[in-house]
Amino acid sequence: MAVVFEKPKTLADVPLHYCPGCPHGIIHRLVAEVMQELDIEGKTIGVAPVGCAVMAYDYFTCDMIEAAHGRAPAVATGIKRCRPENIVFTYQGDGDLASIGMAETVHSAARNENITVIFVNNAIYGMTGGQMAPTSLPGQVTQTSPYGRDVNHCGWPIRVSEMLATLEGPEFISRVAVNNVKNVNAAKKAIKKAFQNQIDGKGFSLVEVVSACPTNWGMTPQQALEWVESDMLPYYPIGVYKDRSAAKEEK
Amino acid sequence: MAQRVLMKGNEAIAEAAIRAGCRHYFGYPITPQTEIAAYMAKKMPKIGGVFLQAESEIASINMVYGAAATGMRVMTSSSSPGISLKAEGLSYIAGSDIPALVVNVQRGGPGLGGIQPSQSDYFQATKGGGHGDYRMIVLAPASVQEMASLTIKGFNLADKYNMTSMILADGTIGQMMEPISFEDAEIEVYEKPWALTGTECKRKHNVVNSLYLKPEELEVKNFERFERYKLVEENEAMWEEYMMEDAEICVVAFGIASRVAKNAIVAARNEGIKVGLIRPITVWPFPKKALAAAADKVKGFVCVELSMGQMIEDVKLATSCKKPVSLCNRCGGMICSPDQVLYSIRNAQKGEF
Amino acid sequence: MKTTQILFAGFGGQGILFAGKFLAYKGLKEDKQVSWLPSYGPEMRGGTANCSVILSETPVGSPIITEPDVLVAMNLPSLEKYIDTVVPGGQIYLDSSLIQYEVKRTDVQVFAIPATAMAKENNMASLANMILVGALLENHPELSFDGTDTVVSDLVPPKKAALVELNMKALSMGKEYTK
Questions:
Q1: Nearest-Cα residue of chain A relative to residue B33
Q2: Angle at CA of residue B107, ends B102 and B112, nearest 5°
Q3: What's the predicted TM-score (pTM) here?
Q4: Distances from the Cα of A138 to the Cαs of A94, A119, A150, B261, C134, in angstroms?
Q5: Distance CA C65, CA C43 (A)
Q6: Which class in CATH covers the domain with range A24-244?
Q7: If you ran DSSP here, which 8-state letter would residue B76 be given?
Q8: Helix (H/G/I), strand (E/B), else coil: A60
């Protein structure tokens, strides 16, 4: 019988701990497929965050290291500076990358560190049980914004891709989503480019993946995907925010 | 007596802090203490207080530094890895001699460790954590009621001595529910002439600072600070003695470990073993006098800890190693069973330490 | 009764923590010393959940239960995990709609109650937990059934007031089943 669908071998054959309906599984798979297609498994070193993806080190078959909360880009920098011939990526959530790890994010981008960053934005702290994230939407109810996010009190959600795109440093900044098949396919392209850029020595490439958290949003998986479309994407539009090489070619 | 209600330990801390007059809480999510932040997020806006989720533990402790400098009662809470991040602020707050309350609901370490209960931050809490010569008053609750009463006590002591009080709890006491009654909180009020309130051009400016470039000055500052610490050691050590009157074996344990130890002590007494417990309620200042007095009458000590053995060093110091001390421990998020403690007590009775 | 240690165990979402909380509040109302300790962490979402409740005439020492007097099991993995820890002479309440298992131990009392099926038949699918608690209450006269309504009212948030009556019905069903 012909095999028409299989798990990339870069994704370990273990049950993932994610909640039902969580898109982390899709995003893991995209990263794993890209690793396999680019044939870089054997020289890739991944950096896991603190957050829901904390146990990603068990799921990717490449070498992995677990970083302190928010410090993944610094850890990746250390690895890459020692082993520039290896492919180094981080996989981080919004609390990790855009709150506690904002300094590391901005500065690794400013240095055009030749690493790949997969940034999963689901507008909530999932692992700790649903607190307000730096990307939680105005009015969004969370455990630490029980009356809805009041922007006058705790500020506005941060558009990471737009912000990083203002820097001279980074090579490639793109926002994608995984709420439907079309978007998943586009997300994979962006992730592949972000890895290819590193192989080509072009520098810092970040893909922001707008994701969902049915458990902590208090929705069914289907409702959560609909909320991505109706509420998340208007605030976080899909698009390429910076692509230095493409811009150069145009000139 | 006030009505008894059931409450989680973490919630008891939050409610007690509000009753103690704390209106400013700064924190960052981490398991197993998130209920404190959740409680504050709900309550503070309703009573004109401030709950602010910071971008990191480092930011939150520095918010506490700034807020405390204004003379307000302020607090933050976290769990082990988060407290490591707060170490910077703890050192600056100590170096500036201002009061604050910091809660550590401990989990297993080192590194990211786990999320289950632990007592392995004892060294960090009592011996430093941050850099430089400093101390914190470290209170170790063993019940939900104490989570509340020691929080109030912690605020009072912090204001009295212009230093940080730390609540050194663990995941079990943070997560468990027990009956608790809130008596009217006894709020002690201390003058804070050093507070940053704006001079209104009526007084010399106040400076909250820990920088002293002249070594002579920094030394004097440290000497003065330790004079104050000496007063704390003389006056503020708290402990509980349980079945110690005729004890030949003394178990030493704090927090959740002391509760397991009590079960074991009851079982050992049923076997005719004369054993009691000294439970430090403040682990700094350590109840040295109680331990020294016990050393004169017992055969030896059994130190029960959820760590690789940290408090045991203070037990040996406090007793000048006069009597043998054995360690009964689990770590990494595991908890001793009463049987394990009983086994250690039996061995001690046989003279095996 | 001096001290009773009760362990509730099942899947997340079965109301394990709520059932324990109810019993702890019930004990509190009757001026007992009580403690309630949940398992916590990521496993609580969708995975296994358990909670330990201790009711006592004397102050509660360790809140951690290693040898329960009573086990309330709402799934097979929980029953298998804890069955051997129950003290001889202890009780096991299990939801027989969800657990097909023959208890071999003869030194414990077993109450197999098809709680989930009973709940479904009565349009209260989420209240199998309280049916089991009702059965437990019936066998523990020291916890008397009186006053359960005020405990339920205290525990159910005002927005869901309709649930008070259903909870009471579930408790009664469990009680009747065991009689």
A1: A128
A2: 105
A3: 0.93
A4: 16, 20, 6, 50, 44
A5: 19
A6: alpha beta
A7: E
A8: strand
Whether the CB of C62 is below 8 Å from some CB of chain B: the reply is yes
Could you report the per-residue pLDDT of B262-315, keeping only the tens digit for each? 999 999 999 999 999 999 999 999 999 999 999 999 999 999 999 999 999 999
Question: What phi-psi label fits residue A130: left (phi over 0), alpha (psi between -120 and 50 degrees) or beta?
Answer: left
Name the minimum distance, in Å, from the CA of A142 to any CA of chain B.
9
- Give the ipTM of the model, two decimals please: 0.91
A56 touches chain C (CB under 8 A): no
Which residue in A71, A131, A154, A213 has the most chain B C-beta atoms within 10 A of its own C-beta, making it the best mutation to test that interface? A131
Spell out which residues of chain A touch residue B112, defining contact as CB-CB under 8 Å: 50, 54, 66, 68
Largest Cα–Cα separation, chain A: 61
C26-56 as b/e: b if 16+ CB within 10 A? bbbbeebbbbbbbbbbbebbeebbbbbbbbb
- Judge residue B87's burial from the number of C-beta atoms within 10 Å of its C-beta, 0-12 exposed, 13-18 middle, 19 or more buried: middle
Q: What CA–CA distance (Å, rounded) separates B226 from B232? A: 9
Q: Give the structural domain span for C64.
A: 3-178
According to the CATH classification, is domain B5-192+208-235 in 3.40.50.970? Answer: yes
Q: Which residues of A touch C45 (CB under 8 A)?
A: 19, 215
Q: Is the Cβ pair C45, A19 closer than 8 Å?
A: yes
Burial of A84 (0-12, 13-18, 19+ CB in 10 A): exposed
Residue C25 touches partner B, C-beta closer than 8 Å: yes
Do B344 and B336 meet the contact criterion of CB atoms below 8 Å apart? no
Portion 185-224 of A in contact with C at CB < 8 A = 215
Domain count, chain C: 1
- CATH of region B239-349: 3.40.50.920
Q: Residue A225 is which amino acid? A: L
Distance, in angstroms, between C45 CA and closest chain A CA?
7
B277: phi then psi, degrees, rounded to nearest 5 = -135, 135
Chains meeting B at 3+ CB pairs closer than 8 A?
A, C
What is the chain A residue with the closest CA to B36? Answer: A144
Which 3 state secondary structure label does DSSP give C132? helix
Q: Do C46 and A19 touch (CB under 8 A)?
A: yes
> Collapsing DSSP states into helix, strand and coil, what is residue B294?
helix
pLDDT digits (tens, 9 = 90+) for B3-14: 889 999 999 999
Say if B5-192+208-235 and B239-349 have the same CATH topology. Answer: yes
